[in-house]
Amino acid sequence: MLLNYFQTDTDPIAPFESNAPQSLQERLPLAGDRCSHFSSRQVQRTDPFGDISKGQTLLSTPHCRLRYTASRALRADRNWPSPDQGPNPSGRGSGGAHVVPVAIEKPPRIFIGRKHYDGPRPDEALAELLNTVQRQTLRFFWEFGHPTSGLARERSNTTPHVVTTGGSGFGIMAILAGVERGWIGRRAALDRLIKMVCFLGQAERHHGAFPHWMDGDSGRTIPFSQLDDGGDIVETAYLMVGLLSARQYFRGPDAKERVLRSLINALWSEVEWDWYTRGSEALVWHWSPVHGWAMDLPIHGWNECLIAFILAASAARHSIEPDVYHRGWAAGRAFANGRSIEGVRLPLGPDHGGPLFFSHYSFLGLDPRALRDRYADYWHQNVAYTHINRTHCVRNPGKFDGYGADCWGLTASDSIDGYVAHAPDRDLGVITPSGALGSFPYAPAECELALRHFASRGDRLWGEYGFRDAFSPSTGWCADSYLAIDQGPIVVMIENYRSGLLWRLFMSCPEIQIGLARLGFSRRPKAAAATS
Description:
- Strand 11 and strand 12 (420-421) form a beta hairpin.
- Mean pLDDT is 82; it is low at 1-109 and 527-532.
- The protein has 16 helices and 15 strands.
- 53% of the residues are buried.
- It has 532 residues and is mainly alpha-helical.
- The longest helix is centred in the last third of the chain and has 18 residues, at 378-395.
- It has a 3-stranded antiparallel beta sheet.
- The radius of gyration is 22 Å and the shape is globular.
- The protein has helices at residues 2-8, 22-26, 64-75, 126-142, 165-180, 186-202, 233-249, 255-269, 306-314, 322-327, 378-395, 433-437, 444-456, 484-498, 501-507, 510-519, and strands spanning 42-46, 52-57, 162-164, 213-215, 221-222, 231-232, 286-287, 340-341, 344-345, 371-372, 412-413, 420-421, 462-463, 466-467, 522-523.
């Protein structure tokens, strides 16, 4: 029934508004209901531009609805506010069904004045320091976004045609923060998001799930590894968090906003979360149209994948049973902990805490404040996780020069030895700015010290898209790269620390509240307050 409202109502959010007709509110499914009445049926959908699309089924061919709606979106307004937006008159890249005719040569600039090539000043007021870091980092997603798809490129220093699914979800949330801060125009952001979603609607999907990497021109899958050449349910989850947050942000009556919401709902509804259980009590990370389930990687906790289970339980179609969460995710050997590490009690995860992105990726949209289930209080979990990581760097058992109370943050990033998931039990002497800056909500005073230290390192660490990916204070090595999955948490988690914006948006999704309830999550009476 929830899906039926998404498919039939002109505004898919309308049934959940406080002023919605009582009959609609009463008819929403309750938490715990398997929603067996979510079935395929013929619908008559009102087109946002006055036409009627009749007789389309909810289980029609995967992309036809999106192509239909996307074509309407592109005809909605011929007076595009930016010269680089809108239909592509040259037809560049029109080599097949996967290409969307909205390619642009160069994305619009963020109107924020000069780029801060000289770096932020370590002694300036915190608000200005945060503004500088967020704005400059945001450029990675806005100015460096792929010119055809608008999606986030994987990294700055190689393979410019490769776009990343999860990093694009992070980038969408970063763009929303930029709009809210006044650095990006609302209309320009809306056009960019429509461009992205139209592209995604015609890109390759694998039982509704996107691959880890795609070609930014064609939308075709780029293998992440030999066997990983199909759907990645975790990267898809990160993308869906960004899309759902955008759906909640652009809730106005404008035709384009309504089209964006409709397109996002179509993508969201077509992810076959239940397919990725392989009929078992575990969510399986990958499926390949060539190799099938050969990677054989069921997801057990604790790690960065919590959000995939929450989305899978929240879906109106293809949702998972709660047992997949309790007997799959919560059955991991590194799940329950409860011991004291570095003098801090750690509810979940390996003894040394692991890389900091475990406390970032799932929580860019999922608000851990006051969130709990039978296994943990997730605010306490993430605060403990952060302090264990920092305390390790302060104690510095590896005796790396430069580590200290103001120089810490171990997480996955580029390294002297390639890409490495740095953690207390895998410490190579490499600090990743995203590690500390993405932890701002959990340890604001300690993160501010790290931010001011990073700022003091000058233009060696600072560049066109903010702080470079990583550095080694003991050897003098500094990465020449920026990575989408590291840049995104900087912008988004700083914004959550400052305003809670992305937490509010994602948690306002009615289906997410239903999914959390199905899995047994609840809220503590009084939320832990984030510093503004």
